[in-house]
Amino acid sequence: MAISALGTGSGLDLNSLVEQLLQAEREPVENRLNTREERFETQLSALGLFSGALSGLRDAASGLENGTGLAQRQAVSGDESLFTATVEEGTPPGRFDIRVLGLAQADKRASAAFADGASAEVGTGTLNFTVGDDAFSINVDQDNNTLGGIRDAINRATDNTGVSAGIINEAGGARLILTGRDTGAENAINLTASGGDGGLDTLVSGFAVLTEAADAEVEIDGFTVNSSSNRIDGAIDGVTIDLAGVSAGVAEGELNVPTTSLSINENRSATLEQVRTFVDRYNALNDVLNGVASYDPETEVAGPLQGNATVRAIASQVRRELTEAVPGAALGANTLAGIGITTAEGGALRIDEGRLNEVIDQRPQALEELFGGENGVGGRLNSYLSQVVGSNSLLEGQTENLQNRIDDIGRQREALEARLERTEERLVRQFSALDSLVAELNQTSSFIEQQFANLQGGRS
Question: Coiled-coil regions in this chain (predicted)?
Fold first, then answer.
């Protein structure tokens, strides 16, 4: 930093002169570094856009390779008050006639009424519960021998996995309600009493069944299927049916109970959406390439990656994977053009949805054959793009190289400032000496002028 008193002796603006000399040395180097840094940062940003667009296309291609979305199905119930259904991807289309003859139910029982309510004393001893393969017991003594105490003991039993207890207070008194936690005939509640004063025997014998534990029963195309729950999984391969009600006429005992249809159909909207996503991801990549890797003859401006050989090679290979025919796919549907996906002006893809719908209708497996598997369009693109984006990829190497260049410019700036600081110190020393010399010369000149003046005054 220049010394503030520099030039005091000579009267010269030496501080300004030092600053001008330093600026003259700094400016060309700094301009060159700024230009290079701006170019590298622009290229780095463009590579980020390019890499992001490639990653988006890779993700869409990966979904197509795995068949995600291309073989989606939808299950349509003829009456959702009776049942709904879900279907796994790839399940063959079909139609089934279903009767719901009975729903799965949990066991539910009520004790006789106790006029004294929850505080009514019941008796002592042991209550033994068996539900399916599980069993547990509770001890009832003078501390918990009321209706409420027995309820709490049942609910708090650590080995109780199948019964919940509650109390309903009605006009005739309080009743202990036992409810099985799981549906199905095998989960019926079996209750016995042992020991004590006999009061628990009376309690047990007074229980009445409110809802009998039962399995669900359905007929699918005339074949009977039973289930311990109201979810029937696998009776139709790939389909899960959730029961909600019983078919009309069952409760009345009718012989000719009507059937309700369950249809497994192609999920056209999901398939179209998957293809649209793939096309949109490619078009996003095409937009990036048109912006960062092209030359505009009207403005005579080139994109930051216009001369990047790696970017050109990647773009060329992606286009090649899109246009090559897929071996083993159906003729007429073994290329993107065959299913209605063609290249528009500017390199973007466009979809002829009429042709695409025609392929879906006539050849349901055609899209899976075209996009799916390692040799399909999705598989080829996913395999290739996984090599050029992500860790240890071609683009990662270029990104690191550009970042290293930017970091090197930062180090060059630091070196420039250090050199200028040394130059400033040298100039200050030199101009300080000059300042002192000029000051001495000025003093000598003043002395001589004074002497001449004195001589001239003496002659007069």
Answer: 399-433
